[in-house]
Input
Amino acid sequence: MLTVVGTSAEDGQEGRALEHFQDNQTQDQEQESQQQQASQLALAKAKKAEQSANEALSARWDAITPDARAQVLQSQRVWINDETADCNKQADAASGDDVAKDTVRAKCDTVATQARTQWLKQYLPPGAGR
Output
């Protein structure tokens, strides 16, 4: 005579437990995907702001006189090196994946570039739209 191992109630519980586990895994994957999309969006936004800041800095640089540029050129080079090192350091210290680190770096670059653009204002020729 054959003996049935387990009951249909036990089989039903195992099936529900498996379904619950699979549902949780699907939810986890969806959350991870949403987080990755949000991270990518934040990076794209930070990169766009960085590009705008760089364009403003270039426009300000172009607006100062050649004499003023010559006067500021060495400090501008030092600033670029210092700013790059500082933002790389901040990015390296940030927690998260490469996207998060790149976002921190872009935001740091944007803030530093905006400050430098303001600093260069003092070198604009008189009446040049301060």
